[in-house]
């Protein structure tokens, strides 16, 4: 990345609050749909996959495998929807992604059981998750560029933080609804129809997000709109070093993020014997705490730079992942403390990742340039985290999973050490 390249600043958008709302509400709906699957994985496993007489973990492993499969469509979504954002505008891409997510969420909610249609049930579920992966990959590419390009001078970190504020709100709503359903419905009701409710609700909410995004202001500059359209693989072809840099920045962040925000309740159930409702409640509380931390992290990065926060995250997780996860036991309070401690460290990455990514690529290929390498890295390390953690448990080596997370965070920390500081450099427009 050549941060000395000539850069021109264009005025920020005239309605920054409206821009934040358009990006954040739609993004929250997208991620609500995506994460509802994770929080209800055990119920989906029981209804959509065949039971194994030899191993009760087989349906759950199958469910997490489908979770990982959805992630492998995210690079495709990042590339295709990123290209739409670079060619036709950020708002056009954001409109497509939220409609796609609404349709795929409805498909999950209407998936028949294995008892009713046999192998067709997991086939339909896989198809729905592939479409969701396509949507989420495109959403990150488009919303990242949209948010950062909407920011005023010295506010890119703050605006960047709303990427994960809205993502976490989506998770929080999904976790809260899952907790409410588990606490109020019987096991028979949850397995019969209760697990479907969040997905059908998500399809309705997607229409709300679509309506809000219609009023957003396009952030792609007039110069870029008039320039020749970039090729589909132009970012990879012309900026290979930047693409690899995105991967190195993201690897540790994504494994830590999905471990702490998605898989930790299931990990606590499998390895510490916590009740399902207690694990979900602890996850919900820690997610609310996490959302409140994000703007603070963004503001700190605007003041002191991106690299100090990234190193705080990376080295913190490299040193503390193993003791934190080994500290888990059959205690709600301990799980909550471990969750919140991880959220503090994680904020060093999540609050500024959108800004860091956007500051790496030039505007012509910014969305596609971010979308493909970021989503590919998330698919390889984030999407597989629940599966890898459950697999370690099945083969009798659950204690290896925390080391796996710690090593990846250490490797990303080496990238952060050599990362040029871009917080106070004008964004290329």
From TrEMBL:
InterPro entries: H+-coupled_symporters, MFS, MFS_dom, MFS_trans_sf, Sugar_transporter_CS
Record's keyword annotation contains Glycoprotein: no
Highest taxon of source: Bacteria
Location relative to the cell: Cell membrane
A GO cellular-component term linked to this record: plasma membrane
Keyword Acyltransferase appears in the UniProt entry: no
Keyword terms: Cell membrane, Membrane, Symport, Transmembrane, Transmembrane helix, Transport
Topology term for the membrane: Multi-pass membrane protein
Chain segments annotated as transmembrane: 57-80, 114-131, 193-212, 243-260, 280-300, 309-328, 334-356, 368-389, 401-419
GO molecular function annotation: symporter activity
Protein name per its UniProtKB record: Putative proline/betaine transporter
Species of origin: Streptomyces caelestis
């Amino acid at each position: 990345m050549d941060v000395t390249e000539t850069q021109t600043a264009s005025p920020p958008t005239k309605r920054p609050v409206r821009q934040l709302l358009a990006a954040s509400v739609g993004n929250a709906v997208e991620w609500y749909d995506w994460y509802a699957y994770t929080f209800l994985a055990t119920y989906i496993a029981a209804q959509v996959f065949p039971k194994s007489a030899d191993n009760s973990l087989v349906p759950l492993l199958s469910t997490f495998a489908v979770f990982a499969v959805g992630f492998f469509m995210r690079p495709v979504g990042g590339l295709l929807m990123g290209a739409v954002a670079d060619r036709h505008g950020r708002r056009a891409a954001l409109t497509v992604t939220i409609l796609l997510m609404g349709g795929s969420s409805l498909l999950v909610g209407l998936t028949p059981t294995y008892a009713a249609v046999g192998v067709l049930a997991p086939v339909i579920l896989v198809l729905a998750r592939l479409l969701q992966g396509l949507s989420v990959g495109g959403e990150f590419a488009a919303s990242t560029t949209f948010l950062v390009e909407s920011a005023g001078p010295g506010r890119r970190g703050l605006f960047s933080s709303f990427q994960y504020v809205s993502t976490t709100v989506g998770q929080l709503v999904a976790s809260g609804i899952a907790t409410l359903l588990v606490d109020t419905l019987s096991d028979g009701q949850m397995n019969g129809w209760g697990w479907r409710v969040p997905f059908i609700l998500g399809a309705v909410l997607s229409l709300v997000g679509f309506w809000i995004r219609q009023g957003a202001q396009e952030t792609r500059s007039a110069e870029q709109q008039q320039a020749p359209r970039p090729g589909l693989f132009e970012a990879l072809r012309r900026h290979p070093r930047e693409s690899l840099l995105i991967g190195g920045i993201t690897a540790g962040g994504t494994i830590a993020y999905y471990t702490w925000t998605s898989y930790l309740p299931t990990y606590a159930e499998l390895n510490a014997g916590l009740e399902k409702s207690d694990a979900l409640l602890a996850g919900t509380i820690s997610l609310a705490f996490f959302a409140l931390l994000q703007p603070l992290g963004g503001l700190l990065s605007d003041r002191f730079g991106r690299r100090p926060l990234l190193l705080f995250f990376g080295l913190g997780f490299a040193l503390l992942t193993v003791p934190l996860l080994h500290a888990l036991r059959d205690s709600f309070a301990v799980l909550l403390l471990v969750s919140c401690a991880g959220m503090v460290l994680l904020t060093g990455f999540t609050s500024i990742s959108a800004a860091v990514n956007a500051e790496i690529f030039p505007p012509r290929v910014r969305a596609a340039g971010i979308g493909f390498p970021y989503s590919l890295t998330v698919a390889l390390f984030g999407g597989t985290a629940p599966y890898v953690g459950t697999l370690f448990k099945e083969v009798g080596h659950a204690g290896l999973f925390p080391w796996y997370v710690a090593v990846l965070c250490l490797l990303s920390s080496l990238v952060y050490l050599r990362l040029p500081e871009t917080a106070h450099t004008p964004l290329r427009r």
